[in-house]
Amino acid sequence: MPEKRITTKDIARLANVSRGTVDRVIHGRGKVSEGARTKVEKVLKDINYQPNVIAQTLRANRKLKIALLIPSPDEDPYWMAALAGINLERDKVAQFEIDIRHFYFNQDDVSNFATLSDEVLSDRPDGLLVVPFFYKESVAFLDKCTSLKIPYITFNTHLDTAQSLCAIGQDLCQSGRVAANLIHRLRRKEWSLLIFHFDEDISNALHMQEKERGFREYFDEKEIRDVYTINLKSTDNIDEILSEFSSENVSGVFVTTSKSYKIADKIKSKFDDCILVGYDLLRENVNHLKSGNIDFLINQNLEIQARQGINYLIDSLLFKRQLPQKEFLPIAIVSRENIDSYLLMNESYPIQ
Amino acid sequence: MPEKRITTKDIARLANVSRGTVDRVIHGRGKVSEGARTKVEKVLKDINYQPNVIAQTLRANRKLKIALLIPSPDEDPYWMAALAGINLERDKVAQFEIDIRHFYFNQDDVSNFATLSDEVLSDRPDGLLVVPFFYKESVAFLDKCTSLKIPYITFNTHLDTAQSLCAIGQDLCQSGRVAANLIHRLRRKEWSLLIFHFDEDISNALHMQEKERGFREYFDEKEIRDVYTINLKSTDNIDEILSEFSSENVSGVFVTTSKSYKIADKIKSKFDDCILVGYDLLRENVNHLKSGNIDFLINQNLEIQARQGINYLIDSLLFKRQLPQKEFLPIAIVSRENIDSYLLMNESYPIQ
DNA sequence: TTCGAATTTGTTCACGTGAACATTTAATTT
DNA sequence: AAATTAAATGTTCACGTGAACAAATTCGAA
Predict the structure, then answer these.
(1) For A249 and D29, how far is CA from C1' in angstroms?
(2) A24 touches strand C (CB under 7 A)
(3) CA–CA separation, A14 vs A233, rounded Å?
(4) DSSP reduced 3-state for A22
(5) Scanning every residue of chain A, which has its alpha carbon at the shortest distance from the alpha carbon of B351?
(6) Tens digits of per-residue pLDDT, A72-83?
(7) Which nucleotide is nearest to B34 (CA to C1')?
(8) What is the residue-wise DSSP string for B274-299?
(9) Which residue is nearest to nucleotide D15 (CA to C1')?
(10) Which residues in chain A have Cβ-Cβ distances shorter than 8 Å to B336?
(11) Which residues pair with A99 in a beta bridge?
């Protein structure tokens, strides 16, 4: 079975017309007589024609311009992982000469987001990979993208935008439950539990709320009620706040952001046998995890999210692949024993 | 900056020769005068020429034929996940019309592997994705592949074959440590620990040994010595074996294969508060995990391994991408709280 | 009818590569 | 020096698509 590939030429022959007519029917442009159209459409249906994407791509012969709009990794190292993922994919798809333009906005400054997003629009990218950090502004911006026919993929933050090619993220509420479950099963004493929010940026509020909701939901089901929430402002004195608790009072701490490294040693030195669970594999977090100050980190897989995003964008734009509307990545539980297997993934990739 | 793509035509112009000569230099075939060769090579180096893979692929215009050689999923459901991964990718790359031929060998029958691998060879695939299950036979087979210039990628089982495009797997010893760590931290009593091998197929021996090594290494470091190994044959009576232990004697059980579902309820009903850790998200395992009979499953990510394997093979064969020599996937810790995030990944994918 | 315009259909080129084929130049033999 | 062969270089086609362009057909009006 040689199974030759079916081309527009074959269709033209079968319908007894020229390739030009077939092309006009397929793309619905130009004038075609009723008779010819019917003939061609019949053949098309019979034969289930699939265009050769390779040839299409060659023909189009365009370099993709992709915009990346994320919070600045300089201000919050959390976003570094996204960059790492992007760069990894950029190298892998170097042959397609894709032009990825980076736009970093200040996550403490809404107006900066507006400015940056305007810059993105005036750059007219072929596609967009974006963290819709500020709810209202993001919705407005993405609406503009839709009307300008700039396709986009969102990641990290979830927005209910049916217009996006794909939304990549994680079930935050469930990740809160995972943290709760770990603490519940590991703790040695039935003392209080603390939830720490690092509320430097109000826009994370939704994120953190979801995680807290999951965490509390879990303990509510177990009828464990002594769960307390602490909102830390960057101006707050952590020692002062911790001094309100006695050392034999807290058996578990859950930090809802990637900032657990900021309190890890304080927690461990103050509370006996206290279980600390935080988020994300920042270098400082990894160090604390390895030294035992942090017990578990939940990996939001930002790097994978970004990689997936870029890949999907290219697949869609260059090869017209269909994408899933949503993609939830695994809620990865990371301990000092499996941390290396998560870090190794980022290992450098030989370039051609 | 329009940054036009550099083609062989440009190189020909710059070196003041014809495209034919450029082509001969690049591919080192045909006769080229010393002078012309030098000129072209200089331009090539100066300009860092990268061929257009899209055009190459169109030109080559071939359908890939990829062979998949794995143990039969009908005999051991563990391998179903590999199939799921393959099928997912097959749909995603449907446009490239890749012909994936499945060969399932009997994992209890070495001679069957020999037969199947011969079939694979006579089918002359463009590439091969293989689980090198039987050590000696696999080495022989893969050597044949190398001499027949059939490139291959291995997964699941690790073989030191520098010839493979890429070896995909997991650090088994470390996964044993992960299991040990979970049990160590979760168990309520300092009773004995049991390691269960399901030794139905001798070829898994290496796998299981590695996992046991990691597990024991961990507890040795903690100076915990009461760790016992039980080799279960399929003919063995499990109840009989368990009767050797009193109910207040065992605080943790580690099953080194995907077969933990076979003893989960027996363990939980016999031993008080015993922690059970096993491998892989088989349906039965998932059920036990959700019901609480199994505490943790370590996901070997067979599905991801297979997906990655197919993707890499296509990238290499079709687009000539460079691959990493080895790829170790994360050692995923799965509990009843994050299991869904691992199952959702397999969600069906809309086809174009 | 016969011309002109509108409509419909057919042909050709470009995308970049690889390879077959054709042509020109150099080296060797008679 | 002419003829023959070998070496080196140049030209062209195919891959499949999309679109510009050219050609052919139809129709209405004079």
Answers:
(1) 101
(2) yes
(3) 72
(4) helix
(5) A322
(6) 999 988 999 999
(7) D8
(8) -EEEEE---HHHHHHHHHTS--EEEE
(9) B59
(10) 181
(11) A65
Question: Does pLDDT of B104 surpass 50?
Answer: yes
List pLDDT tens digits, range A77-107: 899 999 999 998 887 787 788 889 999 999 8
- β strands within chain A, DSSP E: 65-71, 99-105, 127-130, 152-155, 166-169, 192-198, 227-232, 250-255, 275-279, 296-299, 326-328, 332-334
Could you say which nucleotides of strand C lie within 7 A of any protein CB atom?
7-12, 14-21
The reply to whether A276 has its C-beta less than 7 Å from any atom of strand C is no
Distance measured from the CA of protein residue B31 to the C1' of nucleotide D6, in angstroms: 11
Q: Is B169 helix (H, G, I), strand (E, B) or coil?
A: strand
For each of the domains in chain A, give its residue range(s) and CATH number, in order of start: 8-51 (1.10.260.40), 61-170+302-330 (3.40.50.2300), 172-299 (3.40.50.2300)
The confidence score (pLDDT) of residue A279 equals: 96
Q: Does the pLDDT of residue A229 top 70, yes or no?
A: yes
Pairing status of strand A296-299 against strand A332-334: antiparallel
Per-residue confidence (pLDDT) for residue B349, from 0 to 100: 37
List the structure tokens of B71: 């143990």
A265 phi and psi, to 5 degrees? Answer: -70, -35
Distance in angstroms, CA of B57 to C1' of D23?
35
Cβ atoms of A323 and A316 closer than 8 Å: yes
Average pLDDT over residues B305-314: 93
Task: Give the CA diameter of chain A.
Answer: 88
Strand nucleotide closest to residue B56 (CA to C1'): C17
DSSP sequence for B62-129 = ---EEEEEEE-TTT-GGGHHHHHHHHHHHHHTGGG--EEEEEEE-TT-HHHHHHHHHHHHHH--SEEE
Least confident of A223-227, A316-320, B278-282: A316-320
Nearest residue, CB atoms, B337 vs list A178, A322, A342: A178
| Whole-prediction pTM | 0.86
At residue A332, does pLDDT exceed 50?
A: yes
**CA dist., res. B270 & res. B261, Å (int):** 15
